[in-house]
Amino acid sequence: MSEKALVKKTFGEKVKALLKLVFLDAMSGMALGLFSTLLMGTILSTIGKYTGLEIFNTVASFASGATGMAIGVAIAYALKMPPLIIYASAVVGSIGNALGAALTDGSIAGWAVTAKGEADIFYSAGPAGAFFAVVIACAIGSLVSKKTPVDILVTPVVTIFAGFAAAWLLCPAVSYVMYYLGVFIAAATTFQPFFMGIIVSVVVGIILTLPISSAAICAMIFSASALEAATANGTAEGFLLAGGAAVAGCCAQMVGFAVISFRENKWGGLVSQGLGTSMLQMGNIIKKPIIWLAPTLAAAVTGPISTMIFKLKCSGVAAGMGTCGLVGPIGVIDGTEHSAFMWIGLVLVCFVLPAVLSFVFNEILRKLGWVKTGDMKLTLN
Fold first, then answer.
1. Residue range 334-354, pLDDT digits in tens
2. CA gap 115, 160 in Å, rounded
3. How far apart are CA 214 and CA 203, in angstroms?
4. How many C-beta atoms lie closer than 10 Å to residue 6's C-beta?
5. 185 belongs to a structural domain
6. Which has the closest alpha carbon to 249: 192, 306, 210?
7. pLDDT tens per residue, range 148-201
């Protein structure tokens, strides 16, 4: 191998490592920060709603309010930043999560704002804004970290202002993109609930199993601002149905993998995947992608059943959580009008059908010899 080829390989390896650090490690950190705050807030507020105990609502408001700060710290920690950058990233995450744009008739009326005007819809960049702002702030902050005698002053100041500049420039653009993505999904699901039920369920389910945060993505797409925009456009029904389809897709992946890998992983695998995450199967999927087919086909079936028959609804971060901590079903309970039909649909779409369909599809693949025992074996501590 020539010296030039060695250099190229080394450069390629560096790029690969950088991409992994930013889009896998940092996103995984963002998911943990999101789960510890906004998701916990969602769970606690739902408990408070149905128990009447105000303490749950009080704690939930504090948990949700700390979302940006927790995301900032989690991302900086995942990037292995020095302590001063990690602590300063709490400020940057808060800024990135809060800043956005005020939109009037789909056009930006206010750049880098945190509230709407009288006739506007405010759209924050949310977790995506926090992600980009913190990653950029960490990169710039690391350039000066431990380089001066007054590091305790220089590093936090540089990190915070770099993050603010990044948030000021990027967050309105991010919120603008999220606005139109939400508008498209809401409108498309309103007019084509069957096909969009399939598309949303399959895509969000796949994202949940990939090592990126479906919760963060759904928190942005199915946000309160997006619901306000959909309501103004007359497509709120489709918007909420799309959120329900997202829950169906996530549940299909988690429950599906938990059931079809029971031969290999027994009860530990059932719990860790069914109530934890199907992301645990990612290593096995890379080795043998066909094992992903059964739960994905299940998602393609349960999605339109959710939108067309049971009309399950959901919004916010819960849409991207599936059965993880039962957040997805809780979101459906919170977003859908209660009836016996709703409860039947919830149990079928979130638990029974994902298990049965994934098992049937997987058995067919096993009969064809495409999937074998041991293909989904997990190493569980």
1. 889 999 999 999 999 999 999
2. 21
3. 10
4. 10
5. no
6. 306
7. 999 999 999 999 999 999 999 999 998 888 888 888 899 999 999 999 999 999
Same domain, 136 and 265: no
What are the structure tokens assigned to 333, written together?
A: 């309970």
My answer on whether 129 and 198 are in the same domain is no
Residue 358 · residue 260 · CB < 8 Å: yes
273 domain-assigned: yes
CA dist., res. 25 & res. 31, Å (int): 10
Domains identified in the chain, total number: 2
State which H helix or E strand residue 110 sits in.
strand 107-113
Is 380 found in the same domain as 244? yes
Tell me how far the alpha carbon of residue 369 is from its chain's centroid: 34
pLDDT interval class at 2 (50, 70, 90) = very low
Closest alpha carbon to 98 in 71, 120, 78:
71
- Give the tokens for residue 141: 């902050």
Which residue reads 């797409």 in tokens?
Answer: 221
pLDDT tens string 281-327: 888 888 899 999 999 999 999 999 999 999 999 998 889 889 987 88
- Which domain, by its residues, includes 298? 192-381
